Amino acid sequence: MAFRISREKRAEIDAQLTELTDAKDALDNAVVAFNDRMSEAWEAVEEAVNAYNGVRDDLVGMVDGEADDQQSQYDDKSEKWQEGDTGQAVQEWIESLRTAVGDINEVAMDKPEDLSVDDVVGGDDITIEDAPE
């Protein structure tokens, strides 16, 4: 007795393999479309990150410049005034200006990797053979 897959079962298997190939092609197309939209969306994210970092840099520069101006005014005061309660409070305030903006981080983001069907789907060339005779 020969071990064989019946013609009917072979036809069903071949139809399922064809259907699987079609489904994989549809999945490939959907992933390509997703990656394209993700790339477009990433461009908007990059623009927003650059805008945020630009405003952040402007703010840090402005506050640092103000702290420098205040430090110059502080330095012009007498040593006695600087060592007094008001002078020490002003020096702490000037340092708090620098610290406040120093805690605002610059944003850096990496673009997510594209999806790939080939990384998750195996069995591209599936063949179902009959048993050996």
Structure in words:
It is a single chain. This protein is mainly α and 133 residues long. The chain has one domain. 70% of the residues lie in helices and 0% in strands. The chain is built from 3 helices and no strands. Helix 1 packs antiparallel against helix 3. The protein is rod-shaped, with a radius of gyration of 34 Å. The model has no long low-confidence stretch (mean pLDDT 90).
Structure keywords:
rod-shaped; mainly alpha; 133 residues; 3 helices; 0% strand; single chain
Quick overview of this protein structure:
By secondary structure, the protein is an all-alpha fold. Helices cover 70% and strands 0% of the residues.
Shape designation? rod-shaped
> What's the rounded overall pLDDT mean?
90
Percentage of residues in helical conformation: 55-70%
- DSSP summary: helix tally: 3
**Unreliable stretches covering 5 or more consecutive residues:** none
Tell me the span between the first and last alpha carbons. Answer: 9 Å
Strand content: under 5%
Number of DSSP E strands: 0
Structural class: mainly alpha
Q: Main sheet?
A: none
Report Rg: 34 Å
Give the SSE map.
Layout lengths: L6 H70 L2 H5 L1 H18 L31
Helix pairs in contact: 1-3
